[in-house]
Amino acid sequence: MAVSLLSKLRCITVDVTGTLIAYKGELGDYYCMAAKAIGLPCPDYKRVHEGFKLAYTDMAQKYPCFGFHAKMPNIVWWKTCVRDSFVKAGYEYDEETFEKIFRRIYSTFGSAAPYSVFEDSRPFLRWARKKGLIVGLVSNAEYRYQEVILPALGLTKAEWDFGVFSGIEGIEKPDPRIYKLALERAGNIAPEEVLHIGDSMRIDYAPAKSIGMHALLLDRFKTEAAKDWTEAGAIVLPDLVAVQQLLESDKLKC
């Protein structure tokens, strides 16, 4: 006989960026502000944004997990990425000038300034913990998320029990091992006792399901891919309010 999923769950794991928090504005805004702050003309937003995407992809392939395996310091990883972003966008600065720009960018993205927390994030996490569920965060993010950024945003250990961050662990989504590590951190619980919530079919839903976890996806930004997710069999919801309502309705069975 089928029983409600909520009654069987012992843990909920949640993706961070795009699920609990979002970037404020565009990346180009912050790069432009950093350049203007030292008296330089504002770089072209679109070119810098495209340059960043290329540079970030290149760095993630060469030095995954923010340089973890290469024992590359976090600040060196980002300095290389930011420099390449400008170069690919057509901007080359002398070392002293670039250092001034980079320090501002690195400091900004290590603070709460460029991020906002979705209104339903804290209430959902607190609801889950009141239900007696273990709450974990699983994110492709560097160490500053856990130690600085999330606490600065008010997402403290009052809302979550453990975090698995790629820059700290040396494993990143969609590698299923990051989800297995989350199971260990939750107390070596069985995958069928865990629900993962994320915003990507490729790096959240598919790998979590592949090891036997329950999973669903959020489509906060009405993406075109959401229709494909639904057709592929995923439960897709607009926000965490809807997730809570669905779990409390007992319509999800296992």
From TrEMBL:
It holds the Pfam family Hydrolase. Keywords: Hydrolase. GO terms for molecular function: hydrolase activity. InterPro entries: HAD-SF_hydro_IA (IPR006439), HAD-SF_hydro_IA_REG-2-like (IPR011949). It comes from the Eukaryota. PANTHER family: OS02G0173600 PROTEIN, OS06G0665100 PROTEIN. This is HAD hydrolase subfamily IA. It comes from Arabidopsis suecica.
